[in-house]
Specification:
Blueprint lengths: L22 E9 L2 E10 L5 E5 L4 E2 L15 E9 L9 E9 L5 E7 L9 E7 L17 E8 L5 E9 L14 E6 L4 E9 L7 E5 L19 H21 L4 H4 L6 H12 L10
Parallel strand pairs: 1-9, 4-13
Antiparallel strand pairs: 1-2, 2-3, 3-5, 4-5, 5-6, 6-7, 8-10, 8-13, 10-12, 11-12
Length: about 290
């Protein structure tokens, strides 16, 4: 049983001088021998980046009513982030977020970050726990993008994928700490570098995913989620390695039937042990030492 076959880092080439062209890159993964599309990145003629997650596949984990005490997740029909160059600002970049939910009205959010222009750092865009990609929802369209980046191969029956998207300046590459079971790749655009961190959690995929985003403290309607957009590389890594696990892994899998079924494979104790360690933000898969 193998979890992944990650590719080397990918760096696309920016178009040459002259009129800027639109560029589209599909981010894909192979599950049980079939290519699936996770999200698409579109670079506009004005140098904006639009990150569009697959529709109808993710629950955002935010309250349906918008209240912090309402824990019913909303099914996302459409979700996208737009990262702006914000040429008028010497310090900040604006990131807009839009989604249409099945059980709630359309939501538009935004956050500002000075991580890119002032600190040569990384701004987090989103973190996603991917549902079972064998669903037709993730089938690539007949007309594919001109470029694609693959996150490798995996078996949804045994593993679950999670990824995090970060934005930095084109020349700012992410340096992964040695010995970590986290993969990294990046795509270089004209004004930004988009970095993807991803790994495989040893629990089977199910029909519902989870989506975690950020909003700036400068905006009034923060929806109760944690925000930090001015942090540097090490904090971005720490969040992916630990906080996302504390928030999402333990509630999802605490009573998962896999913990019982896995005893047939002699893996019951390791799974239970890993679950406890991850809930504490520690463990061999995610601990940053």
């Amino acid at each position: 049983m193998s979890s992944t076959n990650p590719p080397p880092s990918f760096s696309g080439k920016s178009p040459g001088s002259g009129r800027q062209k639109e560029r589209v890159v599909d981010v894909t993964i192979v599950a049980d021998g079939q290519e699936k599309r996770l999200f698409t990145v579109r670079e506009t003629t004005k140098d904006d980046l639009i990150v569009a997650l697959k529709r109808g596949a993710l629950a955002d984990g935010t309250p349906r009513s918008g209240r912090a005490d309402d824990g019913v997740p909303s099914l996302i029909k459409q979700s996208r982030y737009t990262i702006h160059p914000s040429n008028a600002s010497p310090a900040d970049n604006l990131i807009n977020y839009h989604y249409d939910g099945k059980h709630r009205e359309t939501f538009n959010g935004r956050f500002w970050t000075d991580a890119i222009k002032l600190h040569d750092g990384f701004a987090p865009v989103t973190q996603v726990w991917v549902p079972d990609v064998r669903s037709p929802t993730f089938d690539p369209p007949a007309r594919k993008a001109s470029e694609s980046v693959s996150l490798g191969t995996y078996e949804p029956e045994h593993f679950r994928v999670r990824y995090m998207v970060l934005i930095s300046a084109p020349g700012r590459a992410f340096t992964m700490p040695k010995g970590e079971n986290i993969n990294e790749t990046s795509i270089v655009f004209r004004r930004f570098r988009l970095t993807i961190l991803w790994n495989y959690v040893p629990f089977p995929s199910d029909a519902q995913g989870q989506h975690l985003g950020w909003e700036s403290v400068r905006d009034a309607d923060t929806m109760g989620v944690e925000y930090w957009t001015e942090d540097f590389q090490v904090l971005a890594y720490d969040y992916f390695a630990q906080e996302g696990v504390r928030r999402l892994l333990q509630p999802i899998y605490a009573g998962h039937a896999w913990l019982n079924r896995s005893s047939r494979h002699g893996r019951l104790k390791p799974y239970v042990g890993a679950l406890k360690l991850h809930h504490m933000g520690k463990g061999p898969l995610f601990d940053n030492g």
